[in-house]
Design a protein that fits this description.
Nuclear Transport Factor 2, Chain: A; single chain
């Protein structure tokens, strides 16, 4: 009877050991692949930044940055309003920000140290930064307005993004599209832009 129990336990132990050995479960270390990271997780800080600009919401813009950057001391609502004023001078009133965030480009692990060094160089208060994941996201940003008014307060009309000549021969844009790359990186379990 004890031989049968011993044999049964031995068979169970061999099955369990071979299952762990063949499945690679030695240490429960999971390597995250890009498809295992939710897009909304790493895109969130960039969306906060862009939506903050779009809605003139300073708090939302600040959420995109880690505390050590002290952006709350460097960026004010008047800075966002100044951006809008600049665009109004170029594209007219009722400025609209539209954006499209493209697919991520994976930053290789061997570049994490370089990225962390750049951050530490720019922000000495950062302390020890250990980046464990990073992507580059291309953003297509479109800024449009109602068109600039001439001296007679008549609006200069546009029929395309390039701008057409108005009655007095001047050309004015009402819209522009630009592409910009943003780094998003994760350290201490949180995602930020840089």
């Amino acid at each position: 009877m004890t031989k049968k129990i011993f044999k049964f336990i031995l068979i169970i132990a061999v099955i369990i050991l071979s299952t762990f050995t063949l499945s690679g479960c030695q240490k429960n270390e999971k390597k995250e692949e890009p498809e295992q990271i939710s897009r909304e997780t790493y895109v969130e800080p960039l969306q906060n930044y862009l939506e903050g600009l779009k809605t003139k919401n300073l708090e939302l813009v600040l959420k995109a940055y880690p505390e050590f950057m002290h952006m709350d001391q460097k960026l004010q609502l008047t800075d966002i309003e100044a951006v809008y004023a600049r665009y109004e001078s170029l594209y007219g009133s009722n400025i609209v920000f539209d954006y499209n965030i493209g697919e991520p480009t994976i930053v290789e692990e061997n570049d994490y140290g370089t990225l962390a060094s750049r951050i530490k160089e720019a922000y000495p208060d950062a302390g020890d930064i250990s980046i464990d994941k990073a992507f580059i996201l291309e953003v297509e940003l479109t800024i449009s307005g109602d068109g600039v008014k001439n001296a007679n307060n008549e609006e200069k009309q546009e029929e395309s993004n390039e701008g057409n000549s108005s009655e007095n021969g001047e050309s004015q844009k009402t819209k522009t599209t630009d592409h910009q790359d943003f780094y998003v990186y994760r350290f201490n379990g949180n995602w930020y832009i840089f």
